[in-house]
Amino acid sequence: MRNTKVTGLTFIEILVALVIIVTGILGAIAMQASAKKGAFDSMQRSLASALAQDIVERMRSNSSNPNVLELYEGTYGATLNALPSPRCNSVATLCTPTQLVTSDLYEWELSLMGADVTQSASNRGGLVGARGCIQHAANAVTVVISWEGREGIADGGSSNSDFAKSCGTSGSKRRQIAVEAFIF
């Protein structure tokens, strides 16, 4: 009987090891892509929340005249409003409450559409396909912000109020956030 000692790896063992390593690498790449999508959607939701709170605070700071709240009502984000005159963005500029509403809405819509962050004359900030809707009844204000998510799952406005349903384009990619506040 002959005793032979085999050393080293066979070709099949090397192939099996390569398949295992490649599968692990592809899994890590897929996990990274999924995490990146989730981070983008999370950033969009955070931005929408901050924008809703921003316009509510702008309304609160300009609520000395109760009739001024109705001037904030409307739908914003389809096209940028004209540049207000005066701009009301410095302490040196004295503005009436009505001029301040126009300036507030311009600045808010600029942020909503991402036109406040540009690169090569192209908007780089803001929400994807954003629409902002403002409604008020007495001192109760509702701000709804709709935007487009990356993947279709369910219409974000389908279970909301009729006002929220009318804000933005309905579809499986629509996401929404609604903020209700009282302004005194």
Give keywords.
single chain; alpha+beta; 184 residues; 3 helices; 39% helix
Outline the fold blueprint.
Blueprint: H1 11-61, E1 74-76, H2 97-113, E2 118-119, E3 122-123, E4 131-137, E5 140-148, H3 162-165, E6 174-182
Antiparallel strand pairs: 1-4, 2-3, 4-5, 5-6
Structure in words:
This protein has 184 residues and is an alpha+beta fold. It contains three helices and six strands; from the N terminus they run αβαββββαβ. It has helices at residues 11-61, 97-113, 162-165, and strands spanning 74-76, 118-119, 122-123, 131-137, 140-148, 174-182. It has a four-stranded antiparallel β-sheet. It has a two-stranded antiparallel sheet with strand order 2-3. α1 runs antiparallel to α2. The protein is elongated, with a radius of gyration of 26 Å. The N and C termini lie far apart (100 Å).
The outline comes out as: elongated
Q: What count of structural domains?
A: 1
The SS-based structural class is alpha+beta
Please describe the biggest sheet, giving its number of strands, its sense, and whether it closes into a barrel: 4 strands, antiparallel
Q: In percent terms, what proportion of residues is strand?
A: 15-25%
- Termini separation: 100 Å
- Mean pLDDT value: 87
For the biggest β-sheet, the strand order reads 1-4-5-6
The helix tally amounts to 3
Task: Write down the Rg.
Answer: 26 Å
Low-confidence stretches: none
The residue fraction in helices comes out at 25-40%
Spell out the helices and strands N to C: HEHEEEEHE
Give the number of DSSP strands: 6
